[in-house]
Design a protein that fits this description.
Chain lengths: ~775, ~180
């Protein structure tokens, strides 16, 4: 007999659960301290509107809707398993208490009168709703499965990218005032050695669906079939999880409109020379009002994080640069748009973190391209031989009533072929006092533990730490256990000499360089530097040199209160590495486990793109995001210009909003071109740059939202979200309302966690925006 | 379990030193705590009681830090789970009883003693749960043993409900395979 989820859940609940010994309660009550410790901070009783995070993903709502509307089936199924009960009516969910197997599982306590009947039935109803959602997800995913099976890489992201030439826009430095209220669950008490360590991989063989058994009612048949599909999908999902880094199989829907280019043979080009730097930002300070609802909440975060010292620290300063918003450009005046590619994702995580904390992010923390690129686009074709596949798809923008078009331009890197180059990883860990806050160092340790477990036999690991002084804890070694133990023993204290830490690490790298082994620094820090020449400029030059010499620097940001986004991004940018922000262990899992190969192995260096629009067809265009990646048009082929690094399996998306000319349709019909996309990069291990080109015309056009591919819609939603959050011209927070519907439509087509997270975030933002507009005490 | 109503008031009262409120908290949650621990420990009633006691001791110490962001019952589950993990990871120089250790530690095989009193399948299932990776085990125990809601677990783990649901799916898939292998 097959075990379906319901049965299994039931069995789990039915685990023997004898009555607690009678004297237990007495013992517990005797244990009550004479005087309970007085509260450190008086915690204001949260009211419904301010307590915790808003109920953004209304699973419960959705579930009860589903249950109300079509819910009879499952209820029927559940109840049907308890033989003598008549088939339940549609409303049966509410009164399953007596016969429902779930509640029977819970009967142990229900019988004792310890749990009321309504509670039991509520639990059962919840189970039913939960399973139903599950099955719906399964059905959708399975439908996708049926349509086609394509090999695609997981997702995208990657190394830092550079601008440096033209970003001369005024830059605001935003100082986030207020103290940090990190409304997290209280950390486990006292001895908290419990590591959530093992996001270990498990592999499970693919299951095959058993043949359906003859049944009485068609409903039952269908429902059983669904359960089977569910089982299959889970098994499948499992295989995906286990295979990690390379060669993943994923079932996806083929894009309808996307086309991809036949890559042109890369023309030879001059070799790179040292890149000139143009630093021309004007920094100004803006003080943002404290985001907290009340004084009480601002003291919460710190107190609960066992960090009472930090609790008395200065107000938090969040440092962001605001690079402005690209304007609409008339094609007649400037037909070319040139920018360095970016596969960073830090902004996505940062925004998520803000929303989780119950506040809207400051505009400067929102970088459109990082939010768009943080999402998985399974609809893209992965090139077999060429390094990259270019694709484009365009159609009516769902956001603009005035008939603007949205052009989605994508680049998909190939998957790893054979084994990854052995790598010497030098972990550079910030152990300064600030890392004590929110248990940042703890998250760093657990994140790096994930990374360490993923390393191959040929990789080596070194550890450099810095607080007040830098220290080489381990030279590159294969003994990762020892490194891990050393890492585990780190305790935060002292000031922050970032510079010394980095210099030590670079010196170590050059001392231990080996032929055929790539070297990479991974800097884990909150970016708060206060000793040494802390301005980034002093260390940036060294980073530049080392990057040219092949030692790449990836930066991983942790922490919130005084987190320095600017510094961390800039370091990765100059170090030809990737910048990511880790707000929770899951994110570290994505970075260090799922995408490790891409994180560690570059496919194309100094990658930049140029899109040339046809002025006969495109009247004007606007690039969404990439504001700080701008490159002067005439320097596209100037290989000394610093641009972006793209890793194995990464995807990059760029979106343009287009206004077409009146005669566009006619000209397109006559074979006119909309635009030409060019990609220029230096293939890994080569001195010469390569170029690829894709001509976009009518062939890659789609009508609009309804005909567009999943990826186009997803990118459109993500970009819109970012535009709203950063207050781009012509949009406002009210637009989140309509965005939620589109976002849900997209999410429902996907079983990707990140896509659902995007929906969560949009809903959270909408709720927060509603609060703000409702005149609540929010900001 | 104290699912009904809002236990925040009670928690705040307890945090202000109200012993009656604290007593209420114990009475409304200890059965769930115990029942999670008795399953985690494989039916060792004595041990489960000790761990329950330890759990509440820690809770009283930590109560001032409790934010009221999650329910008390959710919060205490986390403490109980951690207490259990601490217990099995604690070096045990003084505990000579091999059998007991085997019973407490996730093992590959079904413990015959437990199997006798529990029924083979239940014991097998418990072993399978204990052998799950930490995050899955935590989630399964929270959901099915402690009876927490998905949303509550999500807020404990600081992830989205979808992520918890995903974990449950995964966990069930693994458990199913494990059980099918056995039978």
């Amino acid at each position: 007999m097959r075990l379906d989820d319901k049965t299994l859940a039931q069995k789990l609940r039915q685990q023997p659960n004898p009555e607690p010994p009678p004297e237990l309660l007495e013992r517990l009550l005797a244990d009550l301290p004479e005087a309970l410790p007085a509260p450190i901070e008086q915690v204001a009783a949260p009211t419904a509107s301010t307590a915790g995070r808003p109920v953004w993903r209304s699973w419960a709502t959705a579930a009860s809707l589903v249950t109300l509307v079509g819910g009879g089936w499952l209820a029927y199924q559940v109840i049907g398993q308890a033989p003598p009960v008549a088939p339940a009516p549609e409303s049966a969910v509410a009164d399953t208490s007596a016969e429902d197997p779930f509640s029977r599982a819970g009967v142990v306590s229900a019988e004792e009168g310890n749990e009321s009947t309504t509670e039991v039935s509520a639990r059962a109803a919840e189970d039913v709703a939960e399973l139903q959602i599950l099955e719906q997800e399964v059905a959708v995913a399975d439908e996708l499965d049926r349509r086609s099976e394509v090999t695609v890489p997981d997702q995208v992201l990657e190394p830092g990218v550079k601008e440096k030439t033209a970003a001369v826009r005024p830059v605001d430095r935003i100082v986030r005032g207020g103290t940090e209220a990190r409304p997290v669950e209280p950390a486990p008490v006292g001895d908290q050695p419990v590591s959530e360590s093992s996001l270990r991989k498990i592999t499970a063989p693919r299951e095959t669906a058993a043949a359906g058994e003859p049944t009485l009612a068609r409903k039952q048949e269908l429902s059983e079939e669904r359960a089977e599909l569910g089982a299959r999908l889970e098994a499948l999902g499992y295989v995906q999880e286990g295979e990690v880094a390379s060669g993943r199989q994923r079932n996806v829907r083929r894009p309808q409109g996307a086309t991809s280019s036949a890559p042109a043979p890369p023309p030879p080009s001059p070799s790179p020379s040292p890149s000139p730097r143009v630093e021309s930002k004007r920094l100004e300070e803006v003080v943002v009002a404290p985001p907290d609802h009340d004084g009480a909440s601002s003291s919460r975060g710190q107190v609960q994080h066992d960090d009472r010292e930090a609790a008395r620290e200065e107000p938090n300063r969040m440092l962001f640069d605001h690079y402005g918003v690209n304007p609409l450009v008339a094609t007649r005046e400037d037909s070319q748009s040139t920018f360095g590619l970016d596969v960073d994702t830090g902004s996505f995580t940062l925004v998520r973190r803000y929303l989780d904390d119950g506040r809207l992010p400051p505009a400067a923390a929102v970088r459109v391209e990082e939010i768009v690129n943080a999402l998985p686009y399974p609809d893209l074709r992965v090139p077999r031989r060429a390094d990259f596949a270019l694709a484009a798809e365009w159609g009516s923008s769902p956001w603009s009533p005035s008939g603007r078009q949205l052009l989605r331009w994508t680049l998909q890197g190939r998957e790893a072929i054979g084994e990854r180059t052995p790598t010497d990883l030098i972990l550079v860990v910030d152990t300064s006092g600030s890392m004590n806050r929110e248990n940042r160092l703890g998250l760093v340790k657990r994140s790096l533990e994930l990374l360490i477990e993923e390393l191959g036999a040929h990789d080596r690991l070194a550890l450099v730490t810095y607080g007040g002084r830098g220290q080489v804890v381990f030279e590159p070694t294969h003994e990762r256990e020892r490194v891990f133990a050393a890492l585990d023993a780190l305790r935060p204290s002292g000031s922050t000499n970032l510079e010394e830490g980095l210099i030590l690490a670079y010196d170590l790298a050059s001392r231990t360089r080996r032929r055929g082994v790539s070297q990479r620094l991974i800097l884990c820090s909150d970016g708060v530097a206060n000793v040494g020449r802390t301005g980034p400029d002093s260390i940036l030059e060294r980073i530049d040199d080392e990057a040219r010499g092949g030692v790449e620097l990836t930066t991983v940001g942790f922490g919130m209160g005084n987190y320095n986004d600017v510094l961390m991004e800039q370091l990765a940018d100059r170090g030809d590495g990737r910048y990511a922000y880790v707000d929770r262990l899951e994110e570290a899992h994505r970075l260090f486990v799922e995408e490790l190969t891409g994180t560690l192995q570059t496919l194309g260096a100094e990658a930049r793109a140029q899109v040339e629009f046809n002025p006969d067809i495109v009247e004007s265009y606007r690039l969404l995001g990439y504001e700080n990646r701008d490159i002067a048009d005439h320097r596209f082929r100037d290989d000394s210009v610093d641009a972006g690094e793209i890793g194995v399996g990464h995807t990059v998306t760029a979106l343009y909003e287009l206004v077409l000319t009146p005669e566009a349709e006619r000209r397109l019909a006559a074979g006119g071109e909309l635009a030409t996309l060019r990609l220029r990069y230096r293939p890994e291990g080569s001195d010469r740059f390569a170029e690829e080109e894709l001509v976009v015309g009518r062939r890659s056009a789609v009508e609009g939202w309804n005909q567009a591919s999943f990826g186009w819609r997803l990118a459109a939603v993500a970009a819109r979200f970012a535009e709203i959050l950063r207050g781009a011209p012509g949009v406002s927070l009210q637009d989140l309302d309509s965005l939620v519907y589109r976002a849900r439509e997209v999410a429902e087509q996907s079983d990707e966690e990140t896509v659902w997270q995007l929906l969560d975030m949009i809903e959270q933002a909408r709720n927060l925006a509603g609060l703000a507009q409702g005149g609540a005490d929010w900001q | 379990m104290a699912r009904t109503g809002d236990d925040r008031e009670t928690v705040h009262a307890a945090a202000r030193g109200d012993r009656v409120a604290a007593q209420e908290l114990v009475e409304s949650t200890y059965r769930d705590v115990w029942s999670t621990l008795i399953r985690l420990t494989g039916g060792d009633s004595e041990l489960a009681a000790d761990l329950t006691q330890e759990t509440y001791r820690k809770a009283w110490q930590a109560l001032p830090k409790f934010q009221g962001r999650a329910k008390f019952s959710t919060w205490i589950y986390r403490i109980a789970y951690n207490t259990f993990l601490n217990h099995i990871r604690r070096p045990r120089a003084v505990q000579p009883l091999e059998e007991e250790a085997a019973q407490q530690l996730p093992a590959d095989t079904v413990d015959p003693v437990a199997a006798l009193s529990w029924g083979e399948e239940a014991a097998g299932l418990r072993e399978a749960v204990l052998a799950l990776p930490d995050d899955l085990r935590f989630t399964v125990a929270a959901r099915y043993w402690q009876g927490l809601r998905v949303r509550e677990i999500a807020s404990l783990e600081e992830v989205s409900p979808a992520a918890i649901r995903k974990r449950l799916r995964k966990a069930l898939a693994v458990l199913r395979l494990t059980l099918e292998e056995v039978s």
